[in-house]
Amino acid sequence: MGGPVHIELRFCPRSRIALLSAACWAAATGPALGAGGAVRVVLGGDILLSRQVAREIEFRGGEDPWAGLGAFLKGADVVGNLEGAVGSKRECLPEAEPCFPIQPAHLRLLKSAPFTAVSLENNHSADLGPGARGRTQELLREAGIEPLSLEDSPTFIRRGDVTLAIVPFSAEGLRGDPYALLRHTLRQRLRLARGLADWVIAYVHWGNELQDWPGPKEQELAAWLVANGADLVAGHHPHVAIEPGCVASRPVFYSLGNLLFDQKYPQTRAGLLADCSFTAASFSCRAARTAARTGSFYPVLAEKDRQTESLSSCRPERPSKSESGQQLQVAIPAGVHSAGRAMEFEMHSPGKRPISITANAPLRALEWGKFAQNGETSLFALEERYSDIDGAVAPRPYVYKIADRGLRALWRGSALAWPLLDATLLCGKECRLCALHRGDSFAVPRADARPLRSMAYRWDGFGFAAADDKPLSEECRRYFELEP
């Protein structure tokens, strides 16, 4: 249980924003806020910077591919799905066919859109191997573009008083048990996003190529994402646009089609842009239509755009906040940051000045609740940490007492009864810990062991012990969607 406390405290006494240095920043950088303090985000579909698109870029002398959308995208945070990785053709893996190597100079063209972030969660980001994917992430960050990955998610965009969270992932080609494991990871990332952001966006690579209607799997997954905290779902991979719709009043763009691609079929030369405007209280989306220019792959707005009637019934309600009045939110000086890297959060409590929390390890959970033994609100965190218990980096649970001037560690670092995948608080009159474990043990570790198992724990004032509570155990199993 030993080791240093991993959460540091800093205060900014003249501001509600506590940041990474002793000085207090005046405001986040990035796109300006729109009318009424609204944050505008435009999500596009698939982007190719290889093959015929690369040849056109060279033919046009590096001309901005996004010039035809420049006026429309101005002032927005733009997000797209980048197919491929930085490198040369000779680095392509034998099984990667087709393979999409990207020249570094072409990658930098993304900034002129301007893209705030691009997703690497697709079936081509590993075309040149994991080293090329890592190189692509580094070069994107050097260009001021955040690479989106499930591992580092959620990625937060904060503008003014509005915080958005993006959870990107690829469901392409997944079936059976791997698909179930993906859902466990997604539930964790969506829960963290839900607790720290005003609105949550799921950005997903799914569907069948050239199929212009949503399949049963995509419809089922869209409903699951909304039920687990997504406010907006935007999809890509089919390379053709699919008419968006509403799921439980949440907009779902089943496929945005191609934003910049070299496919020859007429329907692949058209795409959608999910044009969404967010305030802290509400948001709305419309679908803007794009088309490739004549004799080119570069996109422009379609001559006749029309409001998408299928989105007219989407009226998302603001998620409920804590009854205690306590809130957690991200504090991001640069405007964009991912939870998979060190970042800051603020904790607001009624009648108290904000507490700045610096997490210097990837966070997988951050939530508060009252345990029966002390009746006080405690902060529960799940951090990716190395431990001598199993010699691995894995989620480790921590409990902190909320004091007048900060946090005090009550319990930290244990992996509970078995190797841990996820954990959350289930709260009624008191909170209990609901954990998802691997099927192996610390004595005989095997990371791919099945089946998974759940366990409910109670807090005894010194740590967590198994809860002898059958209804609670069943609730925990249902939460993780495990078979009886």
Task: Give unreliable regions as ranges.
Answer: 1-29
Count the beta strands: 31
CATH superfamily assignment of the largest domain? Metallo-dependent phosphatases
What is the count of DSSP helices, taking H or I runs of 4+ residues? 7
> What CATH architecture label of the largest domain applies?
4-Layer Sandwich
Q: Which quaternary structure do these chains form?
A: single chain
β-strand percent reads 35-45%
What does this entry look like structurally?
The chain has 484 residues and is an alpha/beta fold. It folds into two domains: 36-311, Purple Acid Phosphatase, chain A, domain 2 (4-Layer Sandwich), CATH 3.60.21; 361-479, Roll (PH-domain like). The chain contains seven helices and 31 strands. Strands 2, 3, 6, 7, 16, 17, 18 and 19 form an eight-stranded mixed sheet that branches. β9 (162-170), α5 and β10 (199-205) form a beta-alpha-beta unit. The longest helix is centred in the middle third of the chain and has 21 residues, at 176-196. The two termini are 32 Å apart. Residues 1-29 have low confidence and may be disordered.
Keywords, separated by commas or semicolons:
about 475 residues; alpha/beta; 8-stranded mixed β-sheet; 7-stranded mixed β-sheet; 7 helices; about 15% helix; globular
